[in-house]
User: What shape does this take?
Amino acid sequence: MSLKTLSLTRRTFGWIATSLLLSSTASIAFGQEAGTFGGTLTYLEQQPHTVLYPPAGGFYPNGGILNQITDKLTYQNPETLVIEPWIAESWEINDTYTEFTFHLRDGVTFSDGTPVDAAAVARNYDVYGLGDPTRRFPISEVLNNYQSSEVIDPLTVRFHFSAPSAGFLQGTSVIGSGLVSLATLDRAFDALGDATLIIGSGPFVVESQTTGTELVLKVREDYNWGPALHPHQGRAYLDEIRYIIVPEDGVRIGALLSGQADFVRQIQAYDEGQVTARGYQLYAPSTRGVNNQLTFRPDNDLVSDINVRRALTLATDRREIVDTLYSANYPLATSVIASTAQGYIDLSDQLEYNQEEAIALLEAAGWHLNANGRREKDGVVFELTAYESLPQPQNRAALQLISQQWDRIGITLNVLAGDAGTAVQDNLDPQRTGVGPAMVGRADPDVIKSQYYPRNRNALLQTGGVSDKVRNFHDDQLNGLLEAIAAETDPDQRLSLVADVQRYILDQSYTIPIFEEPQVFGGAPYVHGVGFEAVGRPSFYATYIQR
Amino acid sequence: MTGYLVQRIGQAVAVLWAAFTVAFILLQMMPGDAVLIRFLGSDFGLSPEQIAQLRVVYGADAPVWQQYLATLGNALFGNFGFSVVSGTPVSQEILTNLPPTLRLAGISFAVAVLLALGTALLATLPRFHWLRDLFQALPGLMISVPVFWLAIVLIQIFSFKLGWVSVINPGPVERMILPIIAIAVPISAPLAQILIRNIDQVSTSGFVPVARAKGASRSFAILRHVIPNALLPTLTIAGVLFGELVAGAVVTETVFGLNGLGRLAERSVRFQDAAVLQAVVLIAAAGFVIVNLIVDLLYPILDPRLRAGRRLPA
Assistant: This one.
């Protein structure tokens, strides 16, 4: 029993006493059961993370890590979607939504000890808003019309925009706007593959990583600047979070149920029963964005006719898809965006299944059955191709089921897996892929613009996007509406524009929404207090283990 | 011998260069590239100008011959560039992932040889004739067991049901047990078959009865005379087995969530990470070259008939 062990024991004892004191005061303050400090959460992820540059946080594995290691200027309450103070204690916005001023909380530091001050925040937003070609940092898709930053004093920063940017305030709360230290931004994008170089101010810090297999986060003892209105304050309960990559679905679930892991991501609908039957907890937060859907590329001659698109929409039995392949956690889509998204309107009457009407529309459009029972017009046989989207749950099976449904009315849909390169290239070519799966999550009215605007994700493949294979399709009326959403400053007006876009897209039969995509996780019964931010990425700030 | 070695090493370098070049050409011919996949296929939502800019920065738009010379030149100095997927230097990816795969493959190979020897020796005993009959009647028994299926079954039984070994956060030894079994079993089967057949053939050769007549016990005759001679032809399929080992590593590493070259290759293929694939192809080619060289050098040592200065064609 050396002196060192003795002092350690005393320190531990002191720490237990402090934590007891802390938790009792916390429970008095918030009138809720306090968690237990300590322990390791073993989290199984399906795919390895890529570069943890915050704007790349849309990729699920990245978001699940970034959410624990970075803080944002503001916090979007996942229940009310209201924007609350976090690193910014308060803010002012000018009347035209071109100037946003934030007053920062004092005493916040990155894990390398440098302050989270106006200079650091300004630098973060300059990189996210303008990109950094020399270091290869891409622009963040949530910042529209960003012009410049201005440091007013050490704790006040102002951002200038070249055009009204109503979505910016919410944009400061998303994973993609996580704040990182200047040391991180001084490196090249390519050099950030090592996650330990991503230095944030969040409740956890990256301690180590083994590329492609494992990543360990350690709690930050001195963390004391969680979102102002969050029920939990101070340091996180857990000591450590261990992310382990287990690509095999069966192994992830088996490990959870046999007590080798505490929390796992990506449980397929057909495996949900295994988890709940054993008293384990399923979590299925909504991604609150553009629904999982099959989108038309009207530049392709086969689907350039609105009546043909309408017919294919009518021929798609969405209910059968959801009932056959998915579970109650995957609600049937009733519009272009999820019912939990902002500005949602119910358009389910536009999305009914009616095979007779579909056939009638095709006949009227001149597509008649040939000798082989396929639809043909002027010697052209109606045949479309789609590539499966790997990140979307059971996407191949869903496409195959749609293919069977269309087959009943004489339309062929080929479903291809393809290698990544071929899929990406063909998906840029509307002649090769007349339809394609799509979805995107973000809890802001801007999300619908992200999906369809040619200079963003360009789901309909209009001219003016990344693809040089589009001949001439573009829809100025739609693009005008999308631009208006991004620029509109009156909140109610913005939501009514979102409603207009949903109506317009379904009136034009541009897309077939299938279901509202959740993120499905499984957790052991002794894991408590798991939170999810507005688009279904987990937050382990208030998570604790109590057996 | 030195002249022979120099000649063999020259051949090896030529093979490596050819592998490198063919891999480069094939990767160039594939549609799309890692930059497109990475920035268009992931959740960046970049504009056309930004994608174009990234392509210039990554050198994806330079003429092919320029890219080839640059890649080859850098590779000669051990610089394989960056992985577009993980953003880490390729050399670092290889250093992280090569040792575990070598360890797994090496131990699995040793276990497979022991398994095969044990099975073959058992099969020579009169009491275990049924074993020999089984192996001869069912040539495909263990060979046709898919590694993938075997790995999942092993995990389900020994880890999830019985809880004997942990798959998540296992200890350094624990993490190897099931993967080794999953790789060794399918590999040991062809080895055992060849051994049994060879033992039969050698046992009927004249020198075995001679040795017995000189007073050697049955087991001594088998161990001293039969086995060394029976082992020789098994060496020839070592190269083929090396391929099996590599393929087995890809599957087991993915199922068991181990890090290693197999999983790195699988990921890189999925995302067309050309820089990493170039390095992986080089390493695999080097592996084959080295294995074949070792086999050729071992032959004369094991078989006195080959020491008369006659060279086997490479």
